[in-house]
Write a structure and sequence with these properties.
Blueprint lengths: L8 H21 L6 H13 L4 E5 L2 H11 L7 E4 L6 H8 L3 E4 L11 H9 L3 H6 E5 L10 H10 L3 E5 L7 E3 L5 E3 L6 E5 L13 E5 L2 H11 L20 H11 L2 H21 L7 E2 L13 E5 L3 H10 L29 H9 E4 L7 H19 L1
Parallel strand pairs: 2-3, 2-4, 4-5, 5-8
Antiparallel strand pairs: 1-9, 6-7, 8-9, 10-11, 11-12
Helix pairs in contact: 1-9, 2-9, 3-4, 3-8, 5-7, 10-13
The structure holds pyridoxal-5'-phosphate (PLP).
């Protein structure tokens, strides 16, 4: 059996007519830059993410970059984030001239450990404290970071709170007072990606920034067009961070199905849990994702393989099962961040995660038989190891 990590064709076949009709409208209009399609999508995403405003941008990476610019983070500033995330989170910090301050993750959720955030911040020198401007928690794999203490800390220290929600559109977090918030609505800026492998994927690159603050909204819209306001008058320097009308047209159609797809992913996660338990693998050979926060949207289903992760990956590949390692090298160990001077052992939880985690197929159209097959093959691998 062949089970790819992600098969977008299965999703597309049912949507083809609707999408082609909408895209044709853009072709006939010949308005490709911003315009009504982008504005409609922005309004819909703002509503979906329970934010007042949303600004369509060119990618999730640019969503992070433009948020940092809007927050006034620049040369010599410090920004706290996770070393266990997609590169863009820290790349954006470095690109505005700031310095990533990495903090290790929670071994269960792979998200920033709030206790370590507090510890790291309180260990900064007074000069460093003054330069600390923002914090970027990442809602990794589709589950929110533990936001309550992070929101409290960012308020106390007057830090910009920028959520990297690229993998978490529609994920929810419950505060201790019972308030439920969606990813991207808890900080000052919520950054989303429409990269095709995200839960809401475009036919190319795209992204969105959400915010509750009207001033930030206006600033983001201006930064997206080189800081112009009005056109050709530049008080600030921005960039070309625009979302294409064509991508917006496609995303508007796909957004209608997002909840259905999320349910499909959650159903698949349950099936995995059942089959892994039945197979007697859970807790012995592998650990399954820990659902700690309220609504996990399963952009990825990531297991921790106690021993032999790379061999298991190869074994599954030979059995036709696509998997991926997110992420094999924590960011503090990346060559480009050598200048930060981190000891490789500075973040042991991230290092361990990079050595043991493996993402299995979780896309909504996966069948029960395929999931069963995948778990059977994982079991076959560990039985082979024994003999
Ligand atoms: C995908 C992703 C990004 C970047 O989004 P792009 O649209 O690919 O630029 C940033 N952060 C995280 C956590 C991501 O998963």
């Amino acid at each position: 059996m062949q089970v790819p990590l992600l098969d977008l064709k299965r999703q597309y076949v049912g949507l083809e007519k609707e999408i082609v009709d909408e895209v044709l409208k853009v072709f006939r209009d010949q308005r490709f830059i911003l315009g009504p399609q982008v504005e409609e999508l922005e309004a819909q995403i703002a509503e979906y993410c329970q934010c007042k405003f949303a600004v369509g941008v060119s990618s999730g990476t640019d969503a992070l970059l433009v948020s940092l610019m809007a927050a006034g983070v620049g040369h010599g500033d410090l920004v706290v984030t996770s070393p266990y995330t997609f590169f863009a989170t820290a790349g954006a910090i470095a690109r505005v001239g700031a310095r990533p301050v990495f903090v290790d993750i929670d071994p269960n959720t792979y998200n920033l450990d709030p206790n370590l955030v507090e510890e790291t911040v309180s260990n900064l020198t007074d000069t460093e404290k003054q330069k600390l401007k923002a914090i970027i928690p990442v809602h990794l794999y589709g589950q929110c970071a533990d936001m309550e203490p992070i929101v409290a800390l960012s308020r106390k220290l007057n830090l910009a709170l920028i959520e990297d929600a690229a993998q978490a559109i529609g994920a929810e977090y419950e505060f201790s007072d019972g308030e439920v918030s969606r990813a991207g609505s808890m900080g000052d800026y919520g950054c989303f990606s429409f990269f095709p492998s995200k839960n809401l994927g475009a036919f190319g690159d795209g992204g969105m920034v959400t915010t509750r603050d009207e001033g930030s909204y206006e600033l983001l819209k201006s930064l997206r067009v080189h800081g112009a306001k009005p056109k050709y008058y530049h008080k600030i320097i921005g960039g070309n961070f625009r979302l294409d009308a064509l991508q917006a047209a496609i995303l508007k159609i796909k957004l209608k199905y997002l909840d259905e797809w999320t349910e499909g992913r959650q159903r698949n996660a349950k099936l995995y849990r059942n089959y892994f338990r039945e197979a007697g693998l859970e807790g012995i050979f592998v650990d399954l994702p820990v659902e700690k926060e309220r609504r996990h949207i399963y952009n990825q289903f990531v297991i921790k393989v106690k021993e032999g992760r790379d061999e298991l990956k190869d074994f599954l590949k030979n059995k036709g099962v696509g998997t991926e390692i997110y992420y094999p090298v924590p960011l503090h160990m990346q060559e480009c961040f050598k200048y930060l001077g981190y000891d490789p052992n500075a973040f042991p939880v991230s290092v361990e995660a990079s050595q043991k985690t493996l993402a299995l197929p979780i896309f909504p159209e996966l069948t029960n038989e395929e999931i069963r097959y995948i778990v059977e093959q994982v079991k076959a691998f560990f039985e082979r190891e024994k003999s």
